[in-house]
Specification:
Order of helices and strands: HHHHHH
Structural class: mainly alpha
Strand content: under 5%
Number of domains: 1
Radius of gyration: 16 Å
Number of helices: 6
Largest sheet: none
Shape: globular
């Protein structure tokens, strides 16, 4: 049953990605923090909505990859509590908080050149650390 749900969600994510690329002139494979800030500060509601959809897709993709690791007996990257859903709002908030956190250890020039996708992964790892094995 989980494999069927995984296949279905994978198809949905692929379709969403294809639509995002087809509908958005700003669609890319990855974004730097400076681009993230420019898009989020723009007045173009459509671009912002599409960009947020992309970011949520990245977060959901990381969550599905993480599920695959768990199902295959591998170590997970992060451990979302069993009774908690990883909602779009959570994903976007985690990324924003991680960018803010990174600003305390990097110069503005360095942070502007960082990719948001790895920052999201680090944010998810920080938000949902896995219990250490004894």
């Amino acid at each position: 049953m989980i494999a069927c749900e995984y296949a279905y969600m994978l198809k949905i994510n692929i379709l969403a990605g294809v639509l995002l690329v087809a509908l958005s002139g700003t669609a890319r494979a990855d974004y730097k923090v400076k681009q993230y800030r420019q898009i989020m500060a723009s007045n173009d509601e459509t671009t912002i909505a599409l960009f947020k959809s992309y970011l949520v897709g990245v977060g959901k993709g990381l969550a599905w990859a993480n599920t695959g690791f768990r199902l295959n007996g591998s170590s997970q990257l992060f451990c979302v509590p069993a009774k908690m859903a990883l909602l779009p709002e959570n994903i976007l908030d985690i990324l924003a908080r991680q960018i803010k956190e990174a600003s305390t250890t990097m110069t503005e020039a360095e942070l502007s050149e960082e990719w948001v996708e790895p920052l999201m992964l680090v944010g998810l790892e920080n938000a949902f650390p896995c219990p250490t094995k004894k």
